[in-house]
Design brief:
The chain is mostly helical. It contains 13 helices and no strands. Helix 2 crosses helix 8, helix 6 crosses helix 7 and helix 9 packs across helix 13. The longest helix has 31 residues.
C-alpha cells in the first residue's frame, strides 16, 4: 500500500474527534448552558447548523456527481442499505422496548438508522482494503445528498411526535435550517467554490467546531431538563449490544447481498463500507433541528455507533488488504491500482 494511503494508527483505539465529543458532553454535564446563556447557545447552534449545510452545498461538485451516475447499480445498492435495510432494522428495534431500550433511546436508535452514509471514512477504508475508491467517493456523496432530503422526511414519518411529526413548524425548520442553506451553497458554488477548496483545512475545523457547539447545546438542554437519569449503565450496555448486532447485520447484508447481485470484489468492498456506515457530521445537526430539547438522548446512539463502526471497519479493511493476490485481480491477472486518499 502507498505511504500516502490513509490508515488508522494501531495505537489509537478511539477516534480523536470522539474524544472531543466526549469532552464536550462532560463540559455540558458540569457547566450546562441555562437561562440567557442557553438562548445564546441555541441561537449560535441554529446558525452553525445552517452554515454547515451551506458548506455542504458549496462543496458539492455537480459535474462529479453526474459523472458517477454511470455506476447506478452500485449507488442504488448503497442507498438501499442506507435508507431501506437500516430503517427496517430500526423499526424492528421497537420490540426491544421497554425491556432492553427505553422509548427515548429507541427513538435515537431508530434515528441513527435514518441518517446518510459517511464519505471520508468510507473512502479511507475502501482504499485500505483495495476496493473501488471512485465508486466509494460517489456512493458516499450520493448518500449525503439524498440524506439532506430523505432523512428528515423519514424521521418525521417514522418517529412520530418524538421527532416532531409532520407539523408545519417542523417542516419549516427543515426548510430554513437545512434545505435553504444547502441550495444557497449550490447556487453560489460558482463564485465561492475556489475559496472553499483553497481553505478546505480551515473550514474543516469550522465544521467540527460547529458540530461540537451543536452537541454542547443539545446535552445542556438535556441536563437542564433532567433526562439523564434515564440512562443507567445497564441501559447503556444494552444499547451497545443492540448496535453491535445492527452493525454486524448490515456488514453481512451489504457484503453477501452485493455478491448475490453479481458485483465484483472491488465494488463489493465499496458497497460494504459505504452501505454499513452512518454519518455523525450529518446526523448531529439534523437531530438538533428535529428533536429540539430531546436531542441529547437522540444523538447518543449515533455517537456510540460512529465509534463502533470505525473500530470494526478498520479491522475488516486491514484483513481485506491481506487477501491473496489472485483475489485482487480483475480477471486480467493485474491488480487494480488504488487511488491514494490524502
Amino acid at each position: 500500500m502507498s505511504r500516502r494511503t490513509l490508515q488508522l494508527p494501531s495505537w489509537l483505539p478511539i477516534d480523536p474527534y470522539i474524544l472531543a465529543l466526549i469532552g464536550t458532553v462532560v463540559l455540558a454535564a458540569l457547566l450546562p448552558a441555562s437561562g440567557a446563556a442557553a438562548d445564546v447557545a441555541g441561537g449560535a447552534s441554529t446558525g452553525a447548523v445552517a452554515f454547515l449545510f451551506f458548506l455542504y452545498g458549496a462543496r458539492l461538485s455537480t459535474a462529479e456527481a453526474l459523472d458517477g451516475v454511470k455506476h447506478w447499480r452500485l449507488h442504488l445498492t448503497v442507498l438501499a442499505c442506507t435508507f431501506v435495510a437500516f430503517p427496517l432494522l430500526g423499526l424492528a428495534s421497537r420490540g426491544l422496548v421497554p425491556y432492553v431500550l427505553t422509548p427515548q433511546l429507541q427513538s435515537g436508535f431508530l434515528f441513527l438508522c435514518l441518517v446518510p452514509s459517511t464519505i471520508q471514512s468510507s473512502i479511507a477504508f475502501t482504499s485500505i482494503a483495495r476496493g473501488n475508491v471512485p465508486a466509494a467517493i460517489c456512493a458516499g456523496s450520493f448518500s449525503s445528498i439524498a440524506g439532506i432530503f430523505v432523512t428528515p422526511l423519514l424521521a418525521a414519518a417514522l418517529l412520530g411526535n418524538s421527532g416532531g411529526g409532520f407539523s408545519a413548524d417542523a417542516l419549516l425548520k427543515i426548510g430554513v435550517q437545512l434545505l435553504l442553506p444547502f441550495v444557497a451553497g449550490q447556487l453560489l458554488r460558482r463564485w465561492i467554490g475556489g475559496f472553499i477548496a483553497r481553505h478546505k483545512k480551515v473550514l474543516g475545523y469550522v465544521d467540527r467546531g460547529s458540530i461540537l457547539l451543536v452537541v454542547y447545546t443539545a446535552f445542556s438542554e438535556g441536563m437542564v431538563a433532567g433526562i439523564w437519569h434515564q440512562v443507567t449503565p445497564a441501559r447503556l450496555g444494552a444499547l451497545l449490544a443492540a448496535e453491535a448486532v445492527l452493525l454486524a447485520l448490515l456488514l453481512a447484508v451489504s457484503w453477501y447481498g452485493a455478491k448475490r447481485l453479481g458485483f465484483g470484489r472491488e465494488d463489493r468492498i465499496a458497497i460494504q463500507f459505504a452501505g454499513s456506515k452512518k454519518s455523525l457530521a450529518s446526523g448531529l445537526p439534523m437531530a438538533s433541528v428535529l428533536f429540539g430539547a430531546q436531542a441529547s438522548l437522540a444523538v447518543l446512539p449515533l455517537m456510540l455507533f460512529h465509534q463502533m463502526q470505525l473500530m470494526v471497519c478498520a479491522v475488516i479493511a486491514k484483513r481485506r488488504a491481506r487477501d491473496p493476490q489472485e483475489a485482487l485481480t480483475d480477471g486480467t491477472g493485474v491488480a487494480p491500482e488504488v487511488a491514494p486518499v490524502g
